[in-house]
Amino acid sequence: MRPENILFAFSLTLFAGLATGIGSGLALLTRKTNTRFLSIALGFSAGVMIYVSTIEIFVKAKESLTGALGEKPGSWAAVAAFFGGMLLIGLIDRMVPKADNPHEMRKVEDMHPGPHQRGDGARLMRMGLLTALAVGIHNFPEGLATFTAALQEPSVGIPIAVAIAIHNIPEGIAVSIPVFYATGSRKKAFYYSFLSGLSEPLGAVIGFLLLAPFFNAVTMGILFASVAGIMVFISLDELLPTAREYGEAHLSIYGLVAGMMVMAVSLLLFL
Length: 271
What we know:
The chain is 84% helix and 0% strand. By secondary structure, the protein is an all-alpha fold.
C-alpha cells in the first residue's frame, strides 16, 4: 500500500466524519428543516450504499476469499463475514438507549424551545453528551468501512464517503439541539457535534493500525464482506426509516433509486 493511497483514504474518512459539523451548522444557522431535501438525500445515500455493497464490495470480497481459500470455503466465509458485519453494527445499535439514539429524528425547529424546555439544563446536557457518545460509537465502524473501501478501490471510496457524509448531517443536528437547549451556547453545540464526528477517522486509524500487519487476501476479503454487511444494515435500519420520517414516503424511494443509478454509472465509468 502506497502512502498516498493511505492519505487519500484517510482524507475521505475525515471528510465523511466531520459532516456532523454541517448538520450542527444547519441547526444553528437556519430556522427550518428542509425535510424534502433531507428525505431525498438520505434515500440517495441508502441507494449508493446498498448498490455498491451488494454489486461491488461483496463480489470483490467473495473473489478474494474464494481465490485464497477455494470456492466453497471462500463463499461460506464471505457470507459469514457479511452477516457478521450486520451483527456487529446491530449490537452497537442495541447498546444505545432509544431516547439517546442519534438516529431518532430531530428538526432544526427544535432548536427554538418553549419556556418549559429552557430550565431543564442538566437533563438536556446529559442527553446531548449521550447523543454525541452514541454518534461516536456508531461512526467508529463506519470510519473503518469508508477507509477500507477507499483504500482498496478509490473509485468506490468517493461515493461511499459522500453517502456517509449525508448520513451524518442529521446526526449533527441530533447532537446540537439538546446541547444548545442546555447551555444556550451555539459554540458548545457546534463543538460537541464536531467532536462526535472525529470518531470516524479515529475508527479508520485504529482499525488500520490493528489490521495492517495482517493484510492479505483473506483479511481483506473478510473485512470487505463485513463492510458490505455494515453498510446494508445502516441503510435499512437507519437511512431509509429516517428518510421516510423526514418526508413523503415516495421521496425516500426516489432518492434510493437515484443513488443506485448514480453509483451504477460511476462504476461503469471506471471499467
